[in-house]
Specification:
2 copies of one chain form a homodimer. Chain A is an alpha+beta fold. The first copy, chain A, is built from 7 helices and 4 strands, in the order E-H-E-H-E-E-H-H-H-H-H. Chain A has a 4-stranded mixed beta sheet with strand order 2-1-3-4, covered by helices on one side. Chains A and B meet through helix 3, helix 4 and helix 5 of A and helix 3, helix 4 and helix 5 of B.
């Protein structure tokens, strides 16, 4: 199909779930190429040749051009849709949350989940100091999200945007990294709100 | 002045340098409010009330609305200017580099500089293992940049964009974090190219 997107993806990854979810919400066809970082697939020269940074997700457009970085992929796909506000300031607030997600949230919450849940063989490397750091810094990031969601339904404006998708990806599985989401009632209501949207698909879903 | 921007800033910070440089390139007037994280200014309730994440830079628009995250501020200010491509795919590539900068580059290179140069009182906390991690991961990020700049003048397309500003901010002072930039000739030529652009101002510059 001419308009089909191809995504190099890893099923367990929240970063890869972001474009899978958005493409499904938009009703856009997707071809998935599953990669397994555990066997070094993304570190091999043939993958490095198309993404020097050696990471997934990697989106291949219908004309073969490539795009990496999960949040850059979200912004690309959302352009001109209701998932990216047309208002300049609201769009800037979406960007603000996307950078917050990659700097303050993912490096703590996704990494904690990775060590404690996704790759059990890594558990031997986990020290009490590592867990305390993840808890403290990841908990701080969750508090920043809660400060918005305590009084609002969505992270930006009055509707569901790619800011919500980006922060949903690892927040909804934060318990797998040892976080207690019961402390954040606004986040709890927001997670349920997202899961109830039409065409929502869970992380486990494949096209 | 009605169109004046106010920036909560910290002079030594590369993240705060990004909007200072772009505002000067654009000829936009700027009022600077210098903050000193060492005295806890950004952690106090009055600052947390305007930025729950407690970080600078923080941009105040003429109408009082706020925007945080250095790269979100760059995208906001660059909209409609030559520093942000009009082409959808080139804009996506700018976003890709901005997320790369905050995830792969800043947490290694800016943090190494912070411990080894900006705050000498932190040097006692620096272990050989920390330095080795910064060198390995930050060096990897520099190699990814070099893979682009070995054959191109700019990170995206054929002109100077906010992707270049974002990655210039901490790359041009990477030696202060112990990195040897002589290993990256494409980066070296690019740093000189940026420093030679009209209206360029150095990190030390204040409006």
């Amino acid at each position: 199909m001419a308009n089909e997107y191809t995504l190099y993806s890893m099923q367990e990854s929240g970063n890869c779930y972001k474009p899978r979810l958005l493409l499904h919400l938009l009703g856009l066809p997707l071809r998935l190429i599953e990669t397994d970082p555990r066997d070094g697939a993304t570190k091999r020269p043939e993958f490095r040749a198309i993404n020097p940074n050696g990471r997934v997700p990697l989106l291949v457009l219908a004309d073969g051009r490539l795009l990496s970085e999960s949040n850059a992929i979200l912004l690309y796909l959302a352009e001109g849709t209701k998932y990216l506000p047309a208002d300049r300031y609201e769009r800037a607030q979406v960007h603000q949350w996307l950078f917050f997600e990659q700097y303050e949230h993912e490096p703590q919450i996704a990494v904690a989940r990775s060590y404690l849940h996704t790759y059990p063989d890594r558990k031997a490397k986990v020290t009490p100091e590592l867990i305390a750091g993840w808890q403290q810094k990841g908990g701080r990031a969750l508090s920043v999200i809660e400060s918005r969601l305590a009084g609002h339904d969505w992270l930006v404006g009055s509707g569901y945007t790619v800011a919500d998708i980006a922060l949903y990806a690892y927040t909804h599985v934060a318990h797998e990294g040892g976080y207690d989401l019961a402390q954040y009632p606004g986040i709890g209501r927001w997670l349920a709100r997202i899961a109830a949207t039409p065409r929502h698909v869970p992380l486990e879903w494949r096209p």
